[in-house]
């Protein structure tokens, strides 16, 4: 295995459209890196440039100590798993698995042993004599994974490999792939992985680190907990987490006694003291960010809360998503089904009290998370 390095990598198409804007990314040897973002953010384009399926317009791509800009895909030491499996339809599973080794003219015994090992790891031994058309979606994806694994590449590349599977099978395959990655690491055969998805649940549950992209730019690279708890900007804050973080324009002001308030629809909510120290007397329009799980639903006459009207209630089983509007601002709060007040209904007035230590404030122009400054205070 090898580390992967992207240095100022750009992609410009013939019509002068710049799809990738000089990105820098380091993936450590044995790391599981996930590229995530909305459709059109250039995550798949970035993956294809790493693979050599797209030429780069500028910058450098290094795999280990080799600059691979001008190398064809077969010389880069990568193996790719595609969204549509890309199995050879006329070949049985054992031939699909071993085809890459046969092209390299590996000894027959090595091919036989490698096929047996990979089919055992992925539990597809009983499928070896089947054609791809005789496989279920999950079985076909395991074969595609095995075909990549058997090559023992320096870097594994996954391009939305689970998007064609149903929800239950996606969850199962997520666990299978991450367990395989951990197993190889424990056995001293660490696999360097770059995995592309638009599904933030996949990203959060699978990645050692996650690279969040937007419009061909990297917005933040961090481990899942850091992205959730300390998003660098409003885009990351709104993209990571389910339901989405509430992002609401508010007025930040300071009382004569020096206490900061967030004002919305004529009601002010005091800021947590730690947050107040970090924002250092900023004032004016800011964007309040608070996750639905970090809003306490209380009575409308309670202290230190925004007054809102319930617009919808979504029963999710173990919890309820409460949608409410305060002035022109929409909020979502998550409430445990066991603690939900059944007298609440559409049109009811409630108080929404953000948990002070969990509040974020974002610059309305740049989107920067201004509440992360001097975070060690």
Automatic annotation (TrEMBL):
<keyword id="KW-0067">ATP-binding</keyword>
<dbReference type="InterPro" id="IPR027417">
    <property type="entry name" value="P-loop_NTPase"/>
</dbReference>
<dbReference type="InterPro" id="IPR003439">
    <property type="entry name" value="ABC_transporter-like_ATP-bd"/>
</dbReference>
<dbReference type="InterPro" id="IPR013611">
    <property type="entry name" value="Transp-assoc_OB_typ2"/>
</dbReference>
<comment type="similarity">
    <text>Belongs to the ABC transporter superfamily.</text>
</comment>
<dbReference type="InterPro" id="IPR008995">
    <property type="entry name" value="Mo/tungstate-bd_C_term_dom"/>
</dbReference>
<feature type="domain" description="ABC transporter">
    <location>
        <begin position="4"/>
        <end position="240"/>
    </location>
</feature>
<dbReference type="GO" id="GO:0005524">
    <property type="term" value="F:ATP binding"/>
</dbReference>
<keyword id="KW-0547">Nucleotide-binding</keyword>
<dbReference type="InterPro" id="IPR015855">
    <property type="entry name" value="ABC_transpr_MalK-like"/>
</dbReference>
<dbReference type="InterPro" id="IPR017871">
    <property type="entry name" value="ABC_transporter-like_CS"/>
</dbReference>
<dbReference type="Pfam" id="PF08402">
    <property type="entry name" value="TOBE_2"/>
</dbReference>
<protein>
    <submittedName>
        <fullName>Sugar ABC transporter ATP-binding protein</fullName>
    </submittedName>
</protein>
<dbReference type="InterPro" id="IPR047641">
    <property type="entry name" value="ABC_transpr_MalK/UgpC-like"/>
</dbReference>
<dbReference type="Pfam" id="PF00005">
    <property type="entry name" value="ABC_tran"/>
</dbReference>
<dbReference type="InterPro" id="IPR012340">
    <property type="entry name" value="NA-bd_OB-fold"/>
</dbReference>
<dbReference type="InterPro" id="IPR003593">
    <property type="entry name" value="AAA+_ATPase"/>
</dbReference>
<keyword id="KW-0813">Transport</keyword>
């Amino acid at each position: 295995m090898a580390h992967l390095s992207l240095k100022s990598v750009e992609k410009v198409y013939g019509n002068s459209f710049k799809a990738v804007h000089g990105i820098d990314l380091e993936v450590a040897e044995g790391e599981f890196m996930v590229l995530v973002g909305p459709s059109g953010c250039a995550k798949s384009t970035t993956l294809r440039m790493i693979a050599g399926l797209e030429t780069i317009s500028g910058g450098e791509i290094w795999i280990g100590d080799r600059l691979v800009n001008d190398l064809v895909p077969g010389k880069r030491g990568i193996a790719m798993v595609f969204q549509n499996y890309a199995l050879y339809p006329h070949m049985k599973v054992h031939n699909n698995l071993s085809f890459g080794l046969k092209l390299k003219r590996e000894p027959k015994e090595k091919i036989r042993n490698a096929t047996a090992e990979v089919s055992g790891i992925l539990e597809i031994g009983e499928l070896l004599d089947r054609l791809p058309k005789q496989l279920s979606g999950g079985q076909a994806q395991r074969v595609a994974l095995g075909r990549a694994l058997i090559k023992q590449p320096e870097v594994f590349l996954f391009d939305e490999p689970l998007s064609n599977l149903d929800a239950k099978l996606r969850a199962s395959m997520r666990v299978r792939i991450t367990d395989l990655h951990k197993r190889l690491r424990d056995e001293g055969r660490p696999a360097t992985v770059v995995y592309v998805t638009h599904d933030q649940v996949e990203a959060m549950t699978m990645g050692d680190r996650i690279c969040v992209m937007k419009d061909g730019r990297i917005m933040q690279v961090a481990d899942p907990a850091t992205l959730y708890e300390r998003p660098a900007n409003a885009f990351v804050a709104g993209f990571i987490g389910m339901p989405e973080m509430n992002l609401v324009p508010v007025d930040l002001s300071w009382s004569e006694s020096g206490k900061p308030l967030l004002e919305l629809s004529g009601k002010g909510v005091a800021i947590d003291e730690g947050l107040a120290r970090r924002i250092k007397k900023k004032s004016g329009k800011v964007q309040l960010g608070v996750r639905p799980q970090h809003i306490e639903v209380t009575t409308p006459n309670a202290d230190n809360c925004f007054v809102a009207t319930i617009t919808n209630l979504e029963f999710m089983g173990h919890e309820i998503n409460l949608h409410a509007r305060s002035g022109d601002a929409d909020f979502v709060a998550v409430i445990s089904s066991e603690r939900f007040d059944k007298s609440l209904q559409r049109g009811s007035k409630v108080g929404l009290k953000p948990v002070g230590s969990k509040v974020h404030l974002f610059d309305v122009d740049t989107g920067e998370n201004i509440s992360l400054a001097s975070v060690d205070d």
